[in-house]
């Protein structure tokens, strides 16, 4: 059970700044995801926490203890990275027990801990297999067992599911969350997949070009993003200009914006699922495309110079046709969070 503090971590590679004096605190048992596009510095930050890369400046503390001068093996941090990096010539049990052996843990104790770790990831029956006789998902579960067997203070995940197919990814994602909760280990998880970040995190940190630009719990960040970058990175959204009409802020189709910050806002973010579309021969919009996705139907509608995206459930809805005229309305949110979909953006 541990807290992690990063203070002013900076890193450049030649002229390129990968991290700009980044500070971050992770609470005991918290699951934080770092979400950002390729090249924003996520992996560099993880490597610095793990001790694989040295920062130019800054401090790292676990439970108040400075660790930035320690070599990786003395930081008590568990790593699960994208490539499983299992030793091919060692059995599953030997792979999982390797870190314990390096730490000089007595054989009997180590064997018991390896067996317990393999049970945790449901691979108890696979202890004597070699990695090549396992599926990708099983190999990644071995990597997870190997990371937790050392009873780390902190678990670091760097895109651990990206080599797996979609169904397995969802399954392992859920397993991983359950395991982290059960063990209560403080975790940081890097991804560029917003659905993964939302599914796993207690708190999402959105990174852009070496900085954390916004953070929050998944629901708050999705529904009340402060920046256009976060709004657009966390799923699809419509960023619409705010129009002033008789001193009132309205959406382009004239509907009043009832949001506290609307008075100053130049744009709002409106999620596709928060716009209702009504077939209306006199309506101001024209359907450009209709995509049926099973669980949902997505439409793009031309409205003047704008293109509005909308999403509806795929059940029981007569699909609109390309070329049909429509009018718009924003939905009343079905949850008690108020009118949060209409968020003002700087
Ligand atoms: N060893 C290195 N030498 C030079 N530049 C590097 C090195 N490692 C990273 N960089 C640069 O630092 C920046 C951040 O890279 P980093 O790998 O941390 O990004 P990332 O967010 O993890 O991206 P991805 O999702 O593609 O893995 C990039 O511009 C990258 O090119």
TrEMBL record:
Family that this chain belongs to: Belongs to the ABC transporter superfamily.
Cellular component terms per the entry's GO annotation: ATP-binding cassette (ABC) transporter complex
InterPro entries: AAA+_ATPase, ABC_SmlMolc_Importer, ABC_transporter-like_ATP-bd, ABC_transporter-like_CS, Mo/tungstate-bd_C_term_dom, P-loop_NTPase, Transp-assoc_OB_typ2
Pfam families noted in UniProt: ABC_tran, TOBE_2
Taxonomic superkingdom: Bacteria
ABC transporter domain location: 4-234
Gene3D superfamilies: P-loop containing nucleotide triphosphate hydrolases
Matches recorded under PROSITE patterns: ABC_TRANSPORTER_1, ABC_TRANSPORTER_2
Regions crossing the membrane: none
Name of this chain's protein: ABC transporter ATP-binding protein
Keyword vocabulary terms for this entry: ATP-binding, Nucleotide-binding, Transport
One annotated GO molecular function: ABC-type transporter activity
């Amino acid at each position: 059970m541990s807290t992690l503090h990063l203070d002013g971590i900076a890193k450049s590679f030649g002229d390129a700044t990968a991290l700009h004096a980044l500070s971050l605190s992770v609470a005991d048992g918290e699951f934080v995801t770092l979400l950002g596009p390729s090249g924003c510095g996520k992996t560099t930050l993880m490597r610095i926490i793990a001790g694989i890369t040295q920062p130019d400046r800054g401090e790292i503390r676990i439970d108040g203890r400075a660790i930035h001068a320690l070599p990786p093996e003395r930081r008590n941090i568990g790593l699960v990275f994208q490539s499983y990096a299992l030793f091919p010539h060692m059995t599953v049990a030997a792979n999982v027990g390797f870190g314990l052996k390096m730490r000089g843990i007595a054989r009997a104790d180590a064997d018991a801990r390896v067996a317990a770790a393999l049970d945790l990831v449901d691979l108890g029956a696979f202890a004597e297999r070699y990695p090549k006789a396992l599926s990708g998902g099983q190999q990644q579960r071995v990597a997870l067992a190997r990371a937790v067997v050392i009873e780390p203070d902190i678990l670091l995940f760097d895109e651990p599911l990206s080599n797996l197919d979609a169904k397995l990814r969802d399954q392992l994602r859920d397993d991983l969350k359950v395991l982290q909760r059960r063990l209560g280990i403080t975790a940081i998880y890097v991804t560029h997949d917003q659905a993964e970040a939302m599914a796993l995190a207690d708190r999402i940190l959105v990174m852009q070009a070496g900085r954390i630009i916004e953070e929050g719990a998944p629901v708050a960040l999705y529904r009340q993003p402060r920046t256009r970058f976060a709004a657009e990175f966390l799923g699809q959204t419509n960023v619409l200009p705010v129009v002033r009409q008789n001193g009132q802020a309205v959406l382009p189709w004239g509907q009043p914006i009832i949001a506290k910050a609307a008075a100053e806002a130049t744009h709002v973010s409106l999620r596709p699922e928060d716009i209702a579309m009504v077939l209306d021969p006199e309506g101001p919009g024209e359907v450009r495309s209709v995509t049926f996705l099973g669980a949902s139907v997505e439409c793009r509608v031309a409205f003047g110079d704008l293109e509005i995206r909308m999403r509806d459930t795929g059940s029981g809805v007569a699909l609109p046709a390309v070329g049909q005229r429509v009018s718009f309305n924003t939905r009343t949110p079905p949850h008690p969070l108020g009118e949060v979909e209409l968020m003002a953006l700087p």
